[in-house]
Amino acid sequence: MFEAKIEAKNWKNIISVIGSIIEEAPLRIDKDGLTLRAMDPSHISLIDLEVPKDQFIDFSVDSDRVIGIDVEEMSRVMSRGKPTDMMLIKADEDNNKLFVTFIGESRRRFGLPIIDTPEQSNLKLPDFPTNAIIGIDASLFKDGIKDASIVADHITLEAKNNSFIMRAEGDIGDIETKIEKSSLVELKLEEECKSTFNLSYLADVSSSINGPITLELGNDSPILMNFEIGGATIKFVLAPRIER
Predict the structure, then answer these.
(1) What is the CATH number of domain 132-238?
(2) In Å, how far from its chain's centre is CA 78?
(3) What is the rounded distance in angstroms from the CA atom of residue 28 to the CA atom of residue 14?
């Protein structure tokens, strides 16, 4: 048995981030809360998500379990939630159903199938060299991403002594966004570094973030993004684009 209550807007934001990376999600649920670790189908990125028990209004589970959901179908259901709604999630594993109930001016229940999806809890966060840690407000980061998308499908992120640079170049032109250290939340630098990444992954993941983002950056190595959304702590790893 698993049953939990959470603000609908928080769960919607969590599902939005998950849906930007994977199509099917094996949600691991235990007495401490809900976790997820999975790679996208192309194995370019990885998401590690944790929603502690205390981020739920109510939380009850009788034993450890994994519940598989179709993220697109869950997103469709969440589009029907109102910002002020509370949301009840209840698993009926005897009938292979996950019930989502919105509680507001009315009480609306949706039933979704629990699906078989390979659990990836044995996945480990990759260990890779980090030369810089950049703390940046999400609005600044998203502006740089949107600017870059005008001219290219990839973006180079660069950390220098007193600034963080977002640069893109394509057939129709180039852009550069330079953010001085004084406008960043933090900038810790062991040495100057830069890496290039697929723009769409960063755009999709960052679209729902409103608070600060911490980036761990190296030279031609994966990037690790750390952020919180909807009560969840999320780590997102994206492999670099290496020019041959």
Answers:
(1) 3.70.10.10
(2) 16
(3) 15
Q: Which two tokens stand for residue 121?
A: 């809890």
Read off the tokens for 110: 């949706």
For the chain, residues classed under CATH 3.70.10.10 are: 2-113, 132-238
- Are the CB atoms for 102 and 108 separated by under 8 Å? yes
Classify 2-113 by CATH class: alpha beta
H or E stretch covering 104: none
pTM for the predicted model, two decimal places: 0.91
Per-residue confidence of the chain (244 residues) as pLDDT tens digits?
899 999 999 999 999 999 999 999 999 999 999 999 999 988 899 999 999 999 999 999 999 999 999 999 999 999 999 999 999 999 998 899 999 999 999 999 999 999 988 766 678 888 888 999 999 999 999 999 999 999 999 999 999 989 999 999 988 899 999 999 999 999 999 999 999 999 999 999 998 899 999 999 999 999 999 999 988 999 999 999 876 5
d(CA 49, CA 232): 7
Which DSSP letter does residue 57 get? Answer: S
List strands edge to edge, sheet with 173-180. 173-180, 163-170, 154-159, 193-198
